[in-house]
Model the fold of this input.
Amino acid sequence: MSDYYSQENHGPFELIDIGDLNLEEGGQIPNCKLAVSIFGTLNAAKDNAILIPTWYSGTNKIMEQVYLGEGRALDPAKYFIIIVNQIGNGLSTSPSNAEGELSGAGFPYVRIGDDVRAQYKLLTEHFGLESLALVVGGSMGAQQTYEWAVRYPEFVKRAAPIAGTAKNSEHDFIFAETLAEAIMTDPNFNAGNYASAESVADGLKRHAKLWTVMGWSTDFFAANRHKALDFESMRAFVDEFMTGYFAPMDPNNLLRMLWKWQRADVSRHTAGDLAAALGRVQARTYVMPISHDMFFPPSDALEDQKQVTNSEFRPLHSIDGHLGLFGTDPAMLEQLDSYLGELLRS
Amino acid sequence: MSDYYSQENHGPFELIDIGDLNLEEGGQIPNCKLAVSIFGTLNAAKDNAILIPTWYSGTNKIMEQVYLGEGRALDPAKYFIIIVNQIGNGLSTSPSNAEGELSGAGFPYVRIGDDVRAQYKLLTEHFGLESLALVVGGSMGAQQTYEWAVRYPEFVKRAAPIAGTAKNSEHDFIFAETLAEAIMTDPNFNAGNYASAESVADGLKRHAKLWTVMGWSTDFFAANRHKALDFESMRAFVDEFMTGYFAPMDPNNLLRMLWKWQRADVSRHTAGDLAAALGRVQARTYVMPISHDMFFPPSDALEDQKQVTNSEFRPLHSIDGHLGLFGTDPAMLEQLDSYLGELLRS
Done:
């Protein structure tokens, strides 16, 4: 296991064994461990629990740093907040930390539904929860949020999918494929049996470059937002910030998350009928795309929102695009907090 | 020279030798040949000539098929229309058809300014023109259009840059870099000394996939426009249409055009002062971005337009995005014809 995925970098988190997890694609993760970070206290009525799943490449740490805080919507003084790292992200059971046959390229293909079933087991059996006041997540966290609201409609009282959709689009599938190919075409990738993550640095850099192009927005760079973030040029932004961000990550971890992202689809519950799947949602739902998101655009999010009964469309404005999720735009975070606060009070 | 770049596929075009072309980056193309396609007749006043430069990967043929026609704005019955293939596109002097030292990977780096000086020589010395009623082009054709209007302000009476900007953005530079890397990382690319273009098929396919993601728009696929174009799935659209389009092209040709595209910048004339460069334009100019263009967005085009004195901002609406240039959206072509007709009458 690489040092990157350490308690020092991402902790404190607790590893909780939820037992064997049977996977939708077949096979099993024996003794699946979820890395969990907890804030606040569960009240006597057990009705103040909030679940936050993680996005592609993210861990509990960025969710804590960017979204939680005293006096903010997600306030540990009021809520019992559980951040659960997705399977494959390097903290929960993942290619980089699994042993034996499941290690590295031998790691099985995991779906969003597997994560959500694992999280349900965790919340009900380990924490004894009977409901969630809110599920909120961005990007792949939004995909898990929709999956929660469709799969366990009575359990989820409120839902806030940010910058993500209920069914991944064909366009997004191909974008994610270009990300995967950037890594897999590195000659040192060797079908996932690489000597070290460092040896795949070139592929990881190309992957970071694609994220630079699609992750922010044309307006972000036109407005010199990357310079405002203290990078003197686009090149420095690519080489230092974006490449630096992804470089220490494990390629197989990223690829298993990509595979999962591409196939997110709540209509798997209803034989492909998306309206029927979203019709199951009982949660009060705020659908929150980011205005300049290039691959989960507001137009796609609006189509989802129209099909959720008790929902509102609350787009967030930011030229930072999808990666505004990183918390780079304080005004967007304020807008988000305002909407989440309103949703939690409703 | 590959069969793809043949008279059969792209003709009729004439190869006109404009003599030796000294290049801005140093070096020379001896006996530079421009592939030219001509329609209509020059009138006695010599004031009805229209120049159409080509875009990345395009040739005179698509410009003729999509943009010219009887009763349309660019009507050969009224205008003397000259379509000039850009250097490096496979018809004009290019890596794929140059001989000796300039062949293949030995081909020099050519800038937009080199193309425009070559075209100026062609128009003045070969055709005896003293002015152009209009320069109109899309994408890299727009880059050449701006270069024409800044470099030869008295020569160009009207200008219509479509889906392109006067100075390539940093964002676009990185996007183009991902396209180049998709080709160059193919193990068979061999630093440009590949056995055949066919041997670089994998790299060309990845390049086509990136074009699929950024060239159209998320809305295009969400609205199933690819299915309306007779492709049953996104996969078929990528594999058959996009990959099929780029597969027969020569990798070195594409890479030299990419290099040129990345560095387009009229402010090279004014020590980096874009406002000063655009302030030189005398042409009546219609700036026409495409609404859903993901890398030459309307917001960037608007900044250009504001700095051209005698100009108007005329965005074209199409969810087809940048590749609406291919003529896939008849409504956009109608809008374009209407604007171009108005510009030509002014």
